[in-house]
Amino acid sequence: MSSAATIDLKNSLLASLMSDENYRPEEPKSLEETRLSPQLIESLICKLLLNIGSASGRQIAEKICLPFGILDALFASLRTRQILQHTGSAALNDYTYALTDQGRTRAQSYMASCTYFGAAPVILEDYITSVEAQSIRNESPRREQLEEAFAGLSVDDDLFDNLGPAVNSGAGLFLYGAPGNGKTTLAKRITACYGQHIWIPRTIIEDGQYVKLFDTVYHEVIEENQNSILKSDSYDHRWVKIRRPTVIVGGELTMDSLEIRHDVINNIGEASLQMKSNCGCLLIDDFGRQRMEPTQLLNRWIVPLENRVDYQALANGKKIQVPFEQLIIFSTNLEPKDLTDDAFLRRIPYKIEVRDAQLDEFRTLFRIFAKQFNCEYNGAAVDHLVEKHYLPVNRPMRRCQPRDLLSQIRNYCIYKGLPLEMRPEYFDRVVQSYFTVVAGTD
Q: Which Gene3D superfamilies does the record cross-reference, listed alphabetically (predicted)?
């Protein structure tokens, strides 16, 4: 083996050892490897130049997220066919390109068909492969991962032992219980139990239809190290490395959100919430309060929950099969049995009640939030609060209350120009306004 080959092998092995990724999109070495037609790439180049005027070959390659080296032949073809023209030289043996009159006519024709331009899409088959490789069902979080994910929260041992198997299953769960006990907070932290980052394509294409998947609302980008000396650290820039997503929807959820939404003017599709949450978690918050009936949502998902695949319609009417690979979490203040029937409950195997805090945990929560508010913890003041305002009226101790009461004390102290302290008289004051409004449902 040559010394150069030995170095490449060592670099490849080192990169593999340093990476905990189950999937990494490799940089295409040719247009054929993208499995996209030359005409599709041509259309992206033409529409890009129609919008920005002119650009160097490397700038065009960067915008459409393909390696400059694999576009040389296409640039030459577009010049020969008088679609593009040189308008000057650029650095590193490159040229600046602009559309000819004929090219501008062609670009306008492409725009009339579909206005999408930017990153070249990824074919649906490659997306499906990536989801299967990065599914949360490939992970097996243990107690240590749960404790790390829930750091800074007060979670008792029983709740840990209930959540652990549910998180491992990846099958879905109901979190139910009285409002204010942290169901939403727990659900948001669960995704972190699975640890890894994942790769998703910016845009998918199937049967000529573009579907935008990457969404900055739900997807947090993890920047790649562009200065790595390891050749194997190169990747396909049509893909984005993100944290495992947690998609949260509440009362605004509609049936339309569960389907690919088509922009008839621009002829571009937007991926459904299920697709955006693949390889992560989808939290239906305050379930039962949506504008649609719970049975509508549940009936829509009976088959996907059973088979781990969903069927979505493209704008041209074609039905496509896409992965349904996320942990579905229903957070509700209502009893699950009051929301749905046994057939659906069987497909959500874990129903976990998040109960009110007990006294010891209530004190622990005050300690946690006192530290966050930069306030010294005063156990005597907490005992005064409990003995005067909780025990006599049998008031439940909700996990949100320590944070809320300390927040009101802080606001009172700021208004009065006083140092922030946990004092019995301060609790007496803020309790009057806090519980007057939310008495019985705090």
A: P-loop containing nucleotide triphosphate hydrolases
pLDDT of residue 442: 40
Query: Which candidate, 356, 361, 354, 312, places its Cα nearest to that of 329?
Result: 354
Q: Is it the case that residue 28 has pLDDT exceeding 80? A: yes
Q: How confident is the model over 175-226, as pLDDT tens digits?
A: 888 888 888 888 888 888 887 799 999 999 999 999 999 999 999 999 866 5
Q: Which fold has domain 37-119?
A: Arc Repressor Mutant, subunit A (1.10.10)
Burial of residue 107 (number of CB atoms within 10 Å: 0-12, 13-18, 19+): buried
- Largest pairwise CA distance in the chain: 88
How many angstroms separate the CA atoms of 308 and 245, rounded? Answer: 18
Q: Give kind and range of the element (H or E) at residue 88.
A: strand 84-90
pLDDT > 70 fraction of the chain, expressed in percent and rounded? 91
Q: Over the stretch 149-186, which tens digit does the pLDDT of each residue have?
A: 888 777 878 888 888 888 887 778 888 888 888 888 88
Angle 13-61-33 from CA coordinates, rounded to 5°: 55
Position of tokens 């984005």? 240
Contact in structure between 331 and 284 (CB atoms under 8 Å)? yes
- How many beta carbons lie within 10 A of that of residue 403, not counting itself? 17
282 burial type by CB count under 10 A (0-12 exposed, 13-18 middle, 19+ buried): buried
CB 121 within 8 A of CB 213: no
CATH 1.10.287 fits 359-435, yes or no: no
Q: What is the CATH number of domain 125-353?
A: 3.40.50.300
Q: Is the CB of residue 389 less than 8 Å from the CB of residue 433?
A: no
Q: What backbone phi and psi angles, to 5 degrees, belong to 311? A: -120, 125
Ordered by start, the domain boundaries in the chain are 37-119, 125-353, 359-435
Label residue 71 by pLDDT band (50, 70, 90). very high
pLDDT at 63: 96
CB contact at 8 A, 313 and 256: no
Give me the sheet containing 84-90, strands edge to edge: 54-56, 94-99, 84-90
pLDDT (tens digit per residue) in 336-383: 777 776 777 777 888 888 889 999 999 999 999 999 999 999 999 999
Angle at 86 between CA 106 and CA 35, to 5 degrees: 55
> Could you check whether 125-353 and 359-435 share the same CATH topology?
no
